[in-house]
What we know:
Elements: H1 2-21, E1 23-29, E2 31-32, E3 40-51, E4 54-57, E5 63-68, E6 75-76, E7 81-85, H2 88-130, H3 136-175, E8 178-180, E9 185-190, E10 197-198, E11 213-216, E12 221-228, E13 240-245, E14 252-265, E15 270-277, E16 289-296, E17 309-312, E18 317-319, E19 322-329, E20 332-337, E21 339-344, E22 347-352, E23 359-362, E24 372-378
Parallel strand pairs: 1-24
Antiparallel strand pairs: 1-23, 2-17, 3-12, 3-16, 4-11, 5-7, 5-10, 6-9, 7-8, 9-11, 12-15, 13-14, 13-16, 14-15, 17-22, 18-19, 19-20, 20-24, 21-22
Helix pairs in contact: 2-3
Amino acid sequence: MIALVLLLALVAIGWYWLLGRAVVVETVTAAPLAATGADAALLDATGYVVARRQATVSSKITGKLVAVLIEEGDRVSEGQILARLDDRDAKAQLQLARAQLAAAKAGIAQLDAQLQKAQRDLNRQQSLNARGATAEQALDSARTKVATLKAQIKAQRAQIGVAEARLRIAQVNLGDTIIRAPFSGVVVAKTAQPGEMVSPVSAGGGFTRTGICTIVDMSSREIEVDVNEAYINRVKPGQPVEAVLNAYPRWEIPAEVIAIIPTADRTKATVKVRIAFQELDPRILPEMGVRVSFLAKRAANRDEPPPGVVVPASAIVERGGNEVVFVVDGERAHQRIVTLGQSYGDLRQIGSGLKAGERVVVDPTAELTDGIWVQTKSSES
């Protein structure tokens, strides 16, 4: 009897010692891949939101600003007046061009009158010469005068053409004192103020502005990312993409690949990829940082579920050069070598080595070894 009591006491002490040495772990159940309802992430990359259509608006001529009619954040439409230059010189040139055109037209009217008189004189001399009542020299002089006046009228008409061209140039120069929006968009920068000199080229030792404002066409927002050239074969035009802005880490934005720029950057060994948002939102701003995942859709035949199961990526660790998970069986955790598949956000596909319904340890620590005693708590509600 005493021996039995001692034996039971030793067993109790052993169980107490084992339970005291048990590692507390958190577990999760391996789920069939078909239950994820997600597309596989083939590749992740980072980039920026960019506007394909933006412009720094300047004047076509050098002049002094007398009015700037916009502020940052203003929405403008194509052709809207943004600023005005001092137009006094342009107006004076326009008045001069109009006066020159009027003078040229007045000159041709005078020549026309002289030509009509010379033509009458020529007709009279021809009539008199036919009756022998005038000398041949008088007839030649009348003919010469008519020919001379015709040449002068032709030259004067050319002068009118020149004056009209000068008038058009003066009108254009006056129009160039008004700066208009080249397209509809939003003003993101105002870089000049009334009283400053502006010019289409840099001049004046840096005292002359070369831009008045910057306009962005918000409908042209897209994403540009640099993809390592070793993985560019995973990206295709039209491929679905999931984008997450750094400013809104919980907001998953659907997008798709527009194009792969057909050149590589030799300094970074990357290829630029353009990505379009499927829906634009006012929260998406140019130059925002963004993370993208290039997705691969599952097979269209849903009657045949994809093979394998999925577990949190944090459940997979490397031991001895192999990818392993720790499967909990009763009160022990057993190390299991697995083969990995695609990523599904925070989940990872396991092609072989694990069955649906088995429980695996989440975030296994270095103290976990094959066959170790564990106390479990589930991470699933």
